[in-house]
């Protein structure tokens, strides 16, 4: 496995782990922000689904050498950036821990994607020639 792919995997998985910790710590705050009777259940299911899909995409790209997964991760990241930009005023009302983890994980994901698309990672994602 090329060094850029290892860097991608390490950063992407660490960002995912930090996001999981942040979701657990900020769970009560997230539930309080959603005016629904079953908000806790809905948020819990959504978090589990998002984290499972994220891990599956990271695994498919890093270990499975799936080029499409790398592009899907990039598209999800760009959507996340747009969402963060649009919700910036609301983000500023959150706790400093939540803001800090959002900034750190976003930077880590950006770095992970940089490694996934540069250097010796390029040939890792090329189809095998027979």
UniProtKB/TrEMBL annotation:
Keyword Transmembrane helix applies: yes
Transmembrane stretches, start-end: 39-61, 68-87, 99-119
Keywords: Membrane, Transmembrane, Transmembrane helix
The organism's place on the tree of life at top rank: Bacteria
Protein's UniProt name: DUF2127 domain-containing protein
UniProt organism field: Rhizomicrobium electricum
């Amino acid at each position: 496995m090329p060094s850029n792919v290892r860097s991608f995997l390490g950063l992407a998985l660490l960002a995912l782990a930090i996001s999981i910790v942040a979701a657990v710590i900020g769970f009560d705050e997230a539930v309080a922000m959603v005016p629904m009777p079953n908000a806790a259940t809905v948020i819990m299911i959504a978090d589990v689904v998002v984290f499972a899909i994220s891990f599956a995409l990271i695994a498919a790209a890093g270990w499975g050498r799936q080029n499409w997964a790398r592009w899907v991760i990039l598209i999800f990241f760009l959507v996340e950036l747009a969402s963060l930009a649009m919700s910036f005023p609301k983000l500023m009302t959150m706790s400093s821990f939540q803001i800090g983890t959002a900034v750190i994980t976003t930077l880590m994901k950006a770095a992970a994607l940089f490694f996934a698309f540069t250097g010796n990672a390029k040939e890792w994602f090329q189809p095998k020639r027979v």
